[in-house]
Amino acid sequence: MNRLISQQHRIRSLGEEMSSLLLAYQLRGKKVVVIGAGEVAAGRVKACYDADASIIEVYGKDVHPDILALEEDGDRTIEIFEGAVRPENVDLEGVSLAFTAIDDRKLSAEFVQLFRNKNIMCNAADIPELCDFYFGSTINRGPLQVLVSTNGNAPRLARRVRQELEHTVDQLGMEGAFAKVGKLREELRKMTVTGEEGYDPQTVKKRMKWMSHICDKFTFSQMAALTDKDIGKLLALYPQKVSYSDIRPS
Predict the structure, then answer these.
(1) Is residue 13 domain-resident?
(2) Last-in-domain residue among 135, 163, 190
């Protein structure tokens, strides 16, 4: 009995330590709603804009200049409904994600309840207990995305951690490494496609094992330095285990 209680306590403890599931959510082709139009709301709009949300609806008064600038850019659809806003006036048809960024906690709670009634995940700025997800401090370097989250406990410290990581990412040339390895992976996939549907379990397994070897044995700087000619040499050696010296002899 004591052992069972101990195991249950350990499971609860692990659950408390890992209380959020970190995901990279794809917004391309989706509609989002932002309640509020101030500085915090502008940050939410920019984040969704950069993530290729197809429609961003903004409800609020005194619209921040950054939101207006994005609207004028015209690369995404940003619809601004200016003025005082109430839950009953917001169109939630087809909305995938929602945000509140207003100073009124009671009104934010009303919106959150509205969103949840519609099964729409939402984030309420500065009210962690009402959030279905949190905004972390992010690093974006080409295909590389790193999220640092404190589950709403210490956003400022998350920013410091991000700054430390940014230095390491830039120092090691990780952005270039991810881009080159992505190209190698895509060219290898094209070269090894088999069958009518282009999928063979054994081929996929062998391909993944070889790519894992490249990622484990090459340094970030070596991967970043790969040229198209180098990638061609690597593909010619597939599925042999290779080292950097095989394509760049000393």
Answers:
(1) no
(2) 135
Total domains in the chain come to: 2
Residues 110 and 194 in one domain: no
Active site positions, annotated: 126
Residue for token pair 């984040």: 47
Minimum mean pLDDT among 88-97, 189-198, 220-229: which range? 189-198
Counts of helices then strands in the chain (DSSP H, E): 10, 7
- Mind listing the pLDDT tens digit for each residue in 218-241? 999 999 999 999 999 999 999 999
Cβ 135 vs Cβ 148: under 8 Å: no
pLDDT in tens, 174-190: 999 999 999 999 999 99
Helix (H) or strand (E) holding 140: strand 137-141
Domain containing residue 114: 31-135
